[in-house]
Design a protein that fits this description.
The structure is a homodimer. By secondary structure, chain A is an alpha/beta fold. Chain A has two domains: 9-181, Rossmann fold, CATH 3.40.50.720; 185-294, Orthogonal Bundle (6-phosphogluconate dehydrogenase C-terminal fold), CATH 1.10.3660. Chain A contains twelve helices and nine strands. Chains A, B: Pathway: Amino-acid biosynthesis; L-tyrosine biosynthesis; (4-hydroxyphenyl)pyruvate from prephenate (NAD(+) route): step 1/1.
Chain lengths: 297, 297
């Protein structure tokens, strides 16, 4: 790292030009923080589309071309591809090129980093932007996606502090607020507040959609159902990878929640309305306190 | 019933002047469909507040006063009060006064109707407006709450068809779309698409709020969590009553959902990413198809 943390990126490589990678590119372009954006990915058609949309400037068909002269790489493909992608890029990665990722899980990505990028550990800084939308793909990307959102950086012990500062500065240029925590804490926290709710929403819609009277049920579902299930519109492959990568923490969270549901079921069966009301009241208060603080209107 | 279904109400009595009852009054006022609105309720302060806000024109401290000259009554208090309210109003209810309700459950309300208003069955038409918001109280009421929303009418065999037409016309004047179904079907359908999601959202927030690291967890929760838990901001007493009144159908739905979660858990434990992705994909498709049809942007 011989550049200022806030200096513009000369050649940015984005692997996986979807909502996350595409919005990162657009945010940096809009901040004047990047000169040229190169897209890499599985399907040439999506990359050409991203180029047509102006999200990237150049389509690279192989890692050698993409990484030639690159000073910054964002890995934004589904986390299930981390091993394959890192194995493919490793031989072409120049010493000193900064690499970060946008994966929603961190321990599995870090395992892949140690497995494939062990010669580059000083400059590979894992991160996770807390942002998303139910739409996916480069068409859904927009330059302000990260404005005011948290980006969690989970640095490796081997990271060069200057590279960590560089990665933080680049995310800050996207408008994000930087947070830092251990990969273990990260994966536990997001199992609880993100991965479990996604699993629950996917599960409810799948449950109802499989009923004989599914059409009738959906015809009476209203705005509460719409909001509760919004995250069931999320990308199936991305969420398969997240759930698989973080399945130990996720299963632990699910089990704790199953305990909560067993308690609620007991209150229903025993007709204990008073305890139910207390529980609802506590939940309401906690939820509203959080929402008012986090999303001031 | 000797009035045209679309004729204005002369004296409307609203029992429970909160979001639902208050918005009903405001909608009818704005449609020129009511001359005078009288509020009845448990706490005089809330009624006085509703009067100050212009939601009601008159505060009644007893049922005799309220019902004197009334031609239309909306019961919009939490369903747990149905028995007490109907017992109190019955002695003062004139023959021919139309009564409807806005309860989110129907079988329990209908039991209360048979128990207390058996002399008035021709003119007591149960209904349920499918509308709500996380805010409650008369301050949250607004005249367009019912615009484009479904109102489910579950007529009794004893109902006068002219009274059913009257109730439908009044809700239509609020901007609602009318649907009709049996109370049994109603309670099963709403256990699935409304009561269960509320229970799940309350449960998740309560679960997380009770953790030692609750503050850390909430500090990383984002917009997906916000939408998933919006309904956990709902009124605790109202939802206690709904869950208690409909607890048999709700427990059946919860059990079916627990089966779904057990299946998801098995997929996680066995690392069956392919099945998980298929399930997520089916859920996403069903959810997006429904949302695009129901909430066209």
């Amino acid at each position: 790292m011989d550049v200022l943390p806030e200096a513009p990126i000369r050649r940015l490589v984005v692997c996986g030009v979807g909502l996350i990678g595409g919005s990162f590119a657009l945010a940096l372009k809009s901040a004047g923080m990047v000169e040229r954006v190169v897209g890499v990915g599985r399907t040439q058609a999506s990359l050409e589309r991203a180029k047509t949309l102006g999200v990237i400037d150049e389509v690279a068909l192989d890692w050698a071309t993409a990484l030639s002269g690159a000073d910054f790489v964002l890995l934004a493909m589904p986390v299930g591809q981390a091993n394959a992608v890192m194995a493919a890029m490793a031989p072409h990665l120049a010493p000193g090129t900064v690499v970060t990722d946008a994966g929603s899980t961190k321990r599995d990505v870090i395992e892949a980093i140690y497995a494939h990028l062990d010669a580059h550990l000083m400059h590979v800084v894992p991160a996770h932007p807390i942002a998303g939308a139910e739409k996916s793909g480069a068409d859904a990307a927009f330059s302000t996606l990260y404005r005011g959102r948290n980006v969690v950086v989970t640095p490796l012990p081997e990271n060069d502090p200057a590279t960590v500062a560089r990665v933080r500065a680049v995310w800050a240029a996207c408008g994000a607020s930087l947070r830092e925590m251990s990969p273990q804490d990260h994966d536990r926290v997001f199992a609880a507040v993100s991965h479990l709710p996604h699993l629950l929403a996917f599960g409810l819609v799948h449950d109802l959609a499989g009923r004989a009277n599914a059409e009738q049920l959906f015809s009476f579902a209203a705005s509460g159902f719409r909001d509760f299930t919004r995250i069931a519109g999320s990308h199936p492959e991305m969420w398969r990878d997240i759930c698989m990568a973080n399945r130990h923490a996720l299963t632990a969270e699910l089990d704790q929640y199953l305990g909560e549901l067993a308690y609620l079921r007991a209150l229903l069966m025993s007709g204990d309305g008073a305890s139910l009301e207390t529980l609802f009241g506590e939940a309401r208060e906690a939820r509203n306190r959080w929402a008012e603080k986090t999303f001031p209107s």
